[in-house]
Write a structure and sequence with these properties.
The complex is a heterodimer of chains A (415) and B (762). Chain A is an all-alpha fold. Chain A has one domain. Chain A is 65% helix and 1% strand. Chain A has 14 helices and two strands; from the N terminus they run H-H-H-H-E-E-H-H-H-H-H-H-H-H-H-H. Chain A has a two-stranded antiparallel sheet with strand order 1-2. In chain A, a hairpin with a 4-residue loop joins strand 1 and strand 2. In chain A, helix 4 packs across helix 7 and helix 8 packs antiparallel against helix 13. The N and C termini of chain A lie far apart (57 Å). Chain B has three domains: 189 residues, Alpha-Beta Complex (Penicillin-binding protein 2a (Domain 2)), CATH 3.90.1310.10; 276 residues, Beta-lactamase, CATH 3.40.710; 126 residues, Trypsin Inhibitor V, Chain A, CATH 3.30.10.20. Helices cover 36% and strands 23% of the residues of chain B. The N terminus of chain B is likely disordered. The chains are: A mainly alpha (415), B alpha+beta (762). Chains A and B meet through helix 8, helix 11, helix 12 and helix 13 of A and helix 1 and helix 2 of B.
Chain lengths: 415, 762
């Protein structure tokens, strides 16, 4: 038998995807009926969220005070950012508590719709972006007409991708077992779609996050580990290749960023300005920091200290000790999320929870790597800390989802 | 069963996959902490330095430098606030602010004009500088700006130019957008030259460059404070009213052992010597006998520390101005500066000459190797080297006292040979001649001397009368002080206290006796010999009536310049209960007699008399001295004019009556003052009568009797200073009131005398 013949036979013997049964767990099977979730939620997780949110809002206020006072955009109101962030934190907390009360099985039904809406938003933003003062070149925002609320579709899409993959990995578990490579390819195409769409917004970091989420979800969902082993090596080789030959990158601005990252010119006041100011702030903080509110770098040296580089001001004011403490809080949040997920009653709940905390962890890790100049500047915000109303509400809503899962998980129920 | 097994496998896989993901995330969190550690701790200081450098809107608040006081808390050096004026030329380009170019141009013109006007600068040059350096944010216009000029600048900074921005709003740009003022300090030396070589001066940033300012720089310098502003350069119209101030920590102050008054006496006397003797430099030290504290120290050919770079020696300056070659000119300038800055009394080793004989004598007495009776034939041969006394004079039979008074070389050569190299070197070291004194002043010079194992008998002979080695002035005064202090070698010092800015004493120097060099009885015998030297010997010019002065003169060869001499005198007074010791060293005197007795001793006498009077040391007159003493003026006020005149004339005074009144209403000199027996007195009989004046005559070169009669004729009284009154060969060389000055009739003029005859002091 020739190789081709055997391949044809194998191909013909394959089950068609439509013949494979889908897995839809019934609420009854999960002993988890009704619209509202029963049981208590995980207090440790809520506590971690509250501590991070409190520190985050306080530091955001400290970091933004001076720049708010000196900006025409804020009408020289030093409390401008604080007021808004606090307002959205309030909304977020309400959203979190409401969602934590909703049985997460309800979201399973919504998953395909959320997926489709986020995909649509990602396409719309490319054609009808809202223009943000000072950032006119980016096509990242959409504005909800009427209430003038701006938000980033990519923020929605991150959640959309997580919920979709959690839904799909549960539903098409058998498909993945039987038609492994076909399913892998389909998942890959979907993740790539998201990443490319975000990339087209000129939002490299968003695209990287999309890929990261996709890769993590795939790992947790059951994609063949061999592929991960190969993928890991390919990624390492790609990174080495890019670092050594930044010329191969498609866009000039990326090339520049890599070059400015590699050649550490601390006197640069142009391309590396923000990164340098960030390092100077962190270095000034030293071990114990200058004390809360005592940052000097926030005095218009570090541009937009309330945004992506907020952690530099945190480092300056609270020092290495404070920074390490905050990193540990984030790590605890991820760890607690995982332990909640592992006790979840459904695959959907488990994957959703893991996806959410990994997304938070990943964003934190990448943000700090950028702030400490271990990675080129990409523009990733720091969860709970960076200023941004819609993303904070989104984040807290996701936390609410984790809490909802924790209610029905085996942690809260004794056997 | 099968499906259950498969399900279990899945559970295991879930765990494994979850742990891989979780592990990976945790690993990356660790990487975060590691990178934070790297940035904040390992590289933290580097980045911090960049940050500080970056925060250009920081102002340094200079910490006030401590004050230097004399021992009576008179200020010798202090810092005062001045300002630095700078310009931010970058802002003339707009620096991102929405200001029309025409307005910026107008600002550039106005700022250049105004600053050029205030600081007398060239307008076009200044403007070009701003244009050329437009990428800079800080260009210093002037440092050390005084208050009046600063006020002009700050007034100007409050003015503005109106303009319309691109959105059509009315805006104002203030000149403070371009100009800045920073605090700065300036060091003031209120007494100018006084103690300049001792005090030193400060350079850029008020750091000590010379003298005490250098030695105690760390103590005097405080820790600078900082004033941090936000970068207001990005906003023209929004004032950023935040500032963080780190208060500066003021520097500590020094309280010196120096007494400003004694220092003035020393400097006045040295100034006169510097002019009269036409020496290269002359310097002197006055020391408190009991403690070793330095009361005064001065070097002439000095400078004004308020502007230390200027060259003060006019002849040197005119020579420098003649040099054409730029390089050799600048070398000459820097050599001249070094010269005027150096504190020769501490830095220069000189050959002490005959002054050293007191130590040979002390060693001889201590070791019982002196000859009570010695016949000086003026010639002595040590191995093959012949020595003789000054001018070949044979002194005949001598006691130790007369040998010192005569400054007899052969006597002391003989003593040294009897002592031997070992014993001589023991005392040489004991008196501190082999090591630096460790006085708290910078740049102390090292002595040049023979080590015990390399000293031959011939060397020993030369050393016995102070030749063939070199010591510093500070070593010499310290050793002389040991003779005065009953044989105790004291540690010399200049700073008695360090005081913080709240007036608390941080550190106090305790007097420290390093060792007992000779016994008290030996020191007494040496002192007596030194008294005889002043009374009848080569140091007559150091005589001060009533203050039993002990001393020794010296004239020696310059160690570095053959053919030049160094004249010196070391003295102690009063000999019966020593209060001060003094050394005067005159390097290369050129005018008239150049011996120590002729040049240095009178300087010491003047300083000793003034200082001891100032210190309220009681005079003890000998019977002979008392004879010559002045008499005190009686009270004539209220007495009938005729009677008063008669009484005064009877007392031996020359009397002048002014006015037509019945009785005396005032008199000059006043009641109780001392004037010479045949002095002059004026009696006023009318209240508002005009003061009777007299013109001060020029006494220079006159004998005592000539001075007396001239003074009476002119209507002034004389106070005689210096030398034994009984000496016949005295000549006036100085007077405290200038010749030709109009003074009140009966005023006292102090006239200084010294011996006119050649004084041979070896």
């Amino acid at each position: 038998m020739t190789v081709i013949q055997s391949l044809i036979k194998k191909f013909k013997g394959r089950k068609r995807l439509s013949q494979i049964p889908r897995i839809v767990p019934k609420a009854k099977e999960l002993e988890d009926k009704g619209f509202f979730a029963k049981g208590g939620f995980d207090v440790v997780f809520l506590l971690l969220v509250c501590v991070l949110l409190t520190i985050g809002v306080v530091m955001m206020f400290s970091a933004s005070y001076i720049s708010a006072k000196n900006s025409a955009v804020t009408h020289h109101d030093p409390y401008f950012y604080l007021k808004r962030q606090a307002f959205f934190a309030g909304i977020g907390i309400v959203a979190m508590l409401i969602i934590s009360k909703i049985n997460h099985n309800f979201f399973r039904k919504l998953a395909p719709w959320i997926f489709l809406i986020s995909l649509a938003l990602l396409v719309i933003v490319l054609f009808a972006p809202a223009s943000v003062e000072g950032k006119e070149q980016f096509k990242r925002w959409l504005e909800i007409p009427g209430i003038k609320l701006r938000f980033q579709p990519s923020e929605v899409a991150k959640f959309g991708l997580i919920i979709f993959m959690a839904w799909a990995f549960e539903r098409y578990q058998r498909h993945l077992e039987i038609r492994k490579w076909t399913m892998t390819f389909i998942f890959f195409v979907i993740v790539a779609c998201f990443a490319v769409l975000v990339f087209l917004e000129d939002h490299l970091s968003g695209a990287i996050l999309m890929l990261g989420i996709g890769i993590a979800m795939g790992l947790l969902g059951g994609i063949d580990l061999k592929l991960y082993a190969v993928g890991f090596f390919v990624a390492v080789i790609a990174v080495i290749l890019v670092i050594n030959n930044p010329d191969i990158l498609p866009k000039d601005y990326m090339k520049e960023r890599i070059e400015f990252w590699l050649v550490k010119d601390y006197t640069d006041t142009d391309a590396r300005y923000q990164t340098n100011q960030s390092l100077f702030a962190l270095g000034s903080g030293g071990f114990f920091g200058l004390g809360l509110g005592n940052s000097k770098q926030k005095f218009l040296y570090l541009p937009e200290p309330q945004n992506d580089f907020i952690f530099a001001i945190v480092g300056e004011e609270l020092g290495f000790v404070g920074c390490a403490f905050i990193v540990i809080l984030f790590a605890l949040l991820v760890w607690r999320g995982f332990s909640i997920a592992l006790k979840a009653r459904s695959t959907f709940g488990r994957l959703m929870t893991m996806g959410i905390v990994i997304q938070v962890g990943m964003q934190t890790i990448l943000n700090i790597l950028v702030v400490t100049d271990m990675m080129p500047n990409t523009g990733i915000s720091l969860p709970f800390f960076s200023y941004g109303g819609s993303s904070l509400v989104m984040l807290l809503a996701e936390m609410g989802f984790v809490l909802s899962v924790s209610r029905s998980s085996r942690i809260s129920k004794k056997h | 069963m099968a499906s259950k097994k498969a399900k279990k496998m899945t559970r295991k896989q879930i765990m494994m996959r979850s742990m891989i993901a979780l592990g990976f995330v945790m690993l990356l969190f660790l990487a975060n902490i590691a990178s934070l550690f790297y940035v904040q701790i390992i590289n933290g200081d580097t980045y911090k330095a960049y940050a500080e450098n970056n925060q250009l809107e920081d102002n340094v608040i200079s910490a006030g430098r401590g004050v230097i006081y004399d021992r009576n808390m008179n200020v010798l050096a202090e810092s005062a606030s001045v300002w630095k004026v700078y310009v931010n030329p970058n802002n003339f380009t707009g620096a991102g602010a929405d200001i029309p170019d025409a307005v910026l141009k107008q600002c550039l013109d106005n700022v250049s004009n105004k600053l050029a006007e205030i600081f007398e600068l060239d307008v076009t040059e200044l403007k070009q500088k701003f244009i050329d350096q437009s990428s800079y944010r800080y260009v210093l216009i002037k440092a050390k700006v005084e208050k009046t000029q600063r006020d002009l600048v700050s007034d100007f900074m409050k003015e503005n130019v109106k303009y319309v921005d691109s959105s059509g709003n009315d805006r104002y740009v203030y000149y403070s957008f371009f100009i800045g003022i920073e605090a700065d300090t300036k060091r003031y030396y209120p007494n100018g030259n006084l103690a300049s070589t001792l005090l030193g001066f400060t350079g850029d940033g008020d750091t000590g460059r010379y003298g005490l300012e250098y030695e105690y720089d760390e103590v005097l310098t405080g820790t600078d404070g900082r004033q941090i502003y936000s970068n207001s350069a990005m906003n023209t119209n929004t004032s950023v009213d935040f500032e963080t101030v780190y208060e500066p920590e003021q520097g500590s102050s020094l309280v010196l052992t120096i007494d400003e008054t004694i220092q003035r006496y020393l400097e006045d006397a040295l100034d006169q010597c510097y002019i009269d003797s036409q020496c290269d430099t002359c310097y002197g030290i006055v020391m408190d006998v009991e403690t070793g504290a330095i009361l005064a120290m001065s070097t002439k050919n000095d400078y004004d520390p308020n502007s230390p770079s200027k060259i003060y020696n006019e002849s040197v300056l005119s020579k420098i101005n003649e040099i054409v070659d730029e390089k050799s000119k600048s070398e000459a300038v820097s050599a001249a500066r070094q010269n005027q800055w150096s504190n020769n009394a501490v830095s220069d080793a000189y050959e002490p000459g005959s002054v050293f004989k007191i130590f040979t004598l002390a060693a001889g007495i201590e070791e019982n190797q002196i000859m009570d009776s010695f016949n000086c034939t003026s010639n002595i041969k040590i191995i093959d080297t012949p020595y003789n006394c000054f001018n070949g004079k044979a002194h005949g039979i001598e006691t130790p006292k007369t040998a010192l008074a005569n400054s007899c070389n052969t006597y002391f050569i003989t003593v040294s040979q009897r002592l031997g190299v070992g014993s001589f070197c023991k005392y040489f070291e004991a008196f501190g001649f082999t090591e630096k004194t460790g006085v708290d002043l910078p740049g102390e010079g090292s002595p040049i001397y023979f080590e015990e194992d390399e000293m031959s008998k011939v060397n020993l002979a030369s050393c016995s009368f102070g030749q063939s080695f070199g010591v510093t002035g500070i070593q010499m005064i310290t050793a002389v002080n040991a003779i005065a202090n009953g044989g105790k070698l004291m540690q010399p010092y200049v700073v008695s206290k360090v005081v913080d800015n709240e007036g608390n004493t941080v550190k106090e120097t305790q007097p420290y006796a390093r060792r007992q060099v000779i016994s008290e009885s030996t020191s007494r015998q040496v002192l007596e010999a030194m008294v005889q030297t002043v009374e009848t010997g080569t140091a007559k010019n150091a005589y001060v009536a009533g203050y039993n002065v002990a001393g020794k003169t010296g004239t020696s060869d310059n160690l570095n310049h053959e053919g030049q001499v160094v004249a010196s005198f070391a003295g102690i007074a009063p000999a019966d209960d020593p209060e001060i010791s003094i050394i005067i060293i005159v390097d290369n005197p050129k005018s008239g007699s150049t011996t120590g007795g002729a040049v240095a001793a009178p300087v010491a006498a003047e300083v000793i008399e003034n200082t001891l009077t100032y210190l309220n040391v009681k005079r003890n007159y000998s019977a002979e001295e008392a004879d010559e003493l002045n008499v005190s003026v009686e009270n004539y006020v209220g007495i009938d004019a005729q009677t008063a005149k008669k009484n005064a004339q009877d007392a031996g005074f020359t009397v002048k009556v002014s006015g037509e009144g019945e009785s005396v209403v005032s008199q000059c000199p006043a009641y109780g003052q001392y004037i010479p027996k045949n002095g002059v007195i004026v009696l006023y009989t009318e209240k508002d009568s005009k003061q009777v004046n007299a013109t001060v005559p020029d006494f220079t070169g006159m004998s005592i009797s000539a001075v007396m009669s001239t003074a009476t004729g002119a209507g002034v009284n004389i106070k005689i200073s210096g030398n034994a009154v009984s000496d016949s060969g005295l000549v006036a060389y100085r007077q405290n009131l200038e010749a030709g000055a109009e003074v009140a009739y009966g005023s006292t003029v102090t006239v200084y005398f010294k011996s006119g005859s050649v004084i041979a002091d070896g």
